[in-house]
Amino acid sequence: MATEDDVAQAYARRLLTALGHDLDVPPAPGPLLDWAASGAMALTGRRDGPPLVATGAAVAARGALLALKALAPEAQLPDIGLLGERAALAGFRRGGDHSCGGATRLLPAHDGYVAISLARPDDHALVPAFVQQDVDDSWAALGTWSASRTVEEVRSRAVLLGLPVAVPAEAATEPVPWRVLAEYGGPTPTGRPLVVDLSSLWAGPLCASLLGMLGCDVVKVEDPQRPDGARQGSRAFFDLLNAGAHPVSVDLRSAHGRDRLQDLLFQADVVIEGSRPRALQQLGIDAAAFAGHGATWVSITAHGRSQGHRVGYGDDAAVAGGLVCRDEDGPVFVADAVADPLTGLHAALVAWSGLRTGGGRLVDLALARVAATAAALTTREHGTVVRDENGWYVETLAGRIPVAEPSARAGRGPGPELA
Fold first, then answer.
1. Which residues contact 23 (CB under 8 A, 6 or more apart)?
2. Strand 296-301 vs strand 361-366: parallel, antiparallel, or unpaired?
3. Domain-embedded: residue 279
4. 321 — phi, psi (to 5°)?
5. Is residue 396 located within the same domain as residue 268?
6. Is 416 within a domain?
7. Domain span at residue 151?
8. Are residues 209 and 147 in the same domain?
């Protein structure tokens, strides 16, 4: 059995074995050290309370990084601090039962809690239908309605209407967080691998960014009518994830645009997308067919392709996986949309493995499933969180561990403008 200090190392080996690799993995610094150093601990807890310990996210991130490093030993990869990069660049802070970014909240129901996200104007527009009355304040209306319903009533109604919703720990834990839905076999690339990134926001672009750092040629495809939503947030964060990608603008409403996209996909060694399967099918795109052509197709959704009707984001999906903390007042969010960077790391690992061993795979990665895997990796060591004039610390038998504030890597230049 793995000790507390080598649980990330053991997890990295598990990931590599599942991908067919037998490689040495160095030991990890330790879950508590990683968690405190990541910036994610500073983002976990009530705004007016201490930061809280949730080591599973750090173990999962460190394990995926160790596995990726084992596959690409010469690469210069980011460290555990990538968990807090968006918050560092956007100025987010911990908010307890409000997500760091403010778009998701943990609301009490009659028999538990639910997480609901109102990240888009369309989400707010659905609230009157959800509570079946006119509303002046979306969150107040949701809170009142949910308090007298069971968590299953809240979840079922939200899913029916298309609101992002999660019940804590509803997602099942699996040995590894991805599913290979189809595997055909394919050649390894003979030149510089081509990555076609159709994704948006955080998880998919992080995967593409990591593959770019590993030497791939990344093409970022956007429809000018529906560009990457991250463009509306922190520009520095968008640049961090998308610098170096070549922009391709495709009007998916036109036959010419759809044909252009099909041509690009046939050239791809890796495809990254975050769309519901039905949306791609309506565009005439069959993911399995492109995998059969030799690509490693990485499908990132909130709850998996089999639940493609459900929408979700990094904060509510983390709750679905059970990646939450609790204090005497109830559950609080773990870090900032933590399911996103964790999924991006695992997606990059699967994609890079496919480039090394041959493509021809359709891979299903669900944010909630990745979060469930991370939650299961939570270690028993917690320490005592204390504060002095220099900031927060975790006191352990080995000494004090400082709790680092979120930070971000230096950017590699501007991200692509819309072509």
1. 16, 70, 71
2. parallel
3. yes
4. -80, -5
5. yes
6. no
7. 104-166
8. no
Residue 26 maps to a domain? yes
- pLDDT over 60 at 1, yes or no: no
For the record, the structure tokens of 131 come out as: 């509570």
Rounded Cα distance between 247 and 231, Å, is 14
DSSP label of 397:
T
Q: Which of 1-15, 198-212, 229-243 has the lowest mean pLDDT?
A: 1-15
Nearest partner of 335 among 379, 375, 279, judged by Cα: 375
Instruction: Determine if the pTM surpasses 0.90.
Output: yes
Question: Which tokens sit at 120?
Answer: 């888009």
Residue 408 maps to a domain? no
Contacts of 358 (CB under 8 A, 6+ apart): 185, 186, 187, 188, 294
Same structural domain, 176 and 238: yes
Beta bridge partners of 364: 179, 299
Check pLDDT > 90 for residue 273. yes
CATH classification of the domain holding 273: 3.40.50.10540
Q: How many domains does the chain have?
A: 2
pLDDT above 50: residue 243: yes
Nearest to 330 by CA among 169, 112, 52: 112
How crowded is residue 98: how many other Cβ atoms within 10 Å of its Cβ?
A: 18
C-beta of residue 258 within 8 angstroms of C-beta of residue 149: no
My answer on whether 75 and 118 are in the same domain is no
CB count within 10 Å of CB 230 equals 20
In a shared domain, residues 24 and 117: no
Percent of the chain with pLDDT over 70: 99
SS3 assignment, position 330: strand
